[in-house]
Design brief:
By secondary structure, the protein is α+β, with helices and mostly antiparallel strands. It is 20% helix and 49% strand. A hairpin with a 2-residue loop joins strand 6 and strand 7.
Length: 148
């Protein structure tokens, strides 16, 4: 391998290691949901149906305030759900781990992976989960959250 190839490999490895650290730095803090889209039963590439919450319609469609999630530097997170009147509806918590551009959330013994894309104050979280509770993680979730 020539010096040029070695230099290119080192640069690529350097960028890859920086992106993981940057993603962790971007993730840590408080977030709230802006929008989401779920393609139901989409693992085979064709969705049975689509559940959509566009920007500005969160409260109208879901009848709750945008979910507040705090990703802590110690690798834990907590999400708080509020009714429209501001009273607390529920809390969920667990652990998070970032590997490159993938975020893994573990709660109650179940881990879900998301592709994490930082976009200057906002992030897109995408992954397959069991949105329709049919026992299969075949629903494609794409959600945008804003960092406070």
């Amino acid at each position: 391998m020539g010096q040029r190839s070695i230099l290119i490999c080192l640069l690529v490895l350097g960028f890859a290691s920086c992106s993981s650290t940057n993603n962790e730095e971007y993730l840590v803090g408080e977030w709230y949901n802006e929008s989401l889209r779920v393609d139901i039963d989409a693992l085979d590439g064709k969705a049975d149906s689509v559940f959509l919450v566009p920007v500005g319609s969160w409260e109208e469609i879901l009848q709750i305030k945008p979910i507040n999630t705090n990703f802590r530097p110690d690798g834990t997170y907590e999400s708080v759900y509020y009714n429209l009147d501001g009273s607390e509806l529920q809390r969920s918590s667990g652990e998070w781990k970032m590997k490159s551009d993938s975020l893994y959330l573990t709660s109650q013994g179940q881990t879900t992976g998301y592709y994490f894309l930082w976009q200057e104050g906002k992030a897109t979280f995408e992954g397959y989960l069991d949105w329709d509770t049919d026992g299969h993680a075949d629903d494609f979730y794409s959600g945008v959250q804003i960092k406070k």
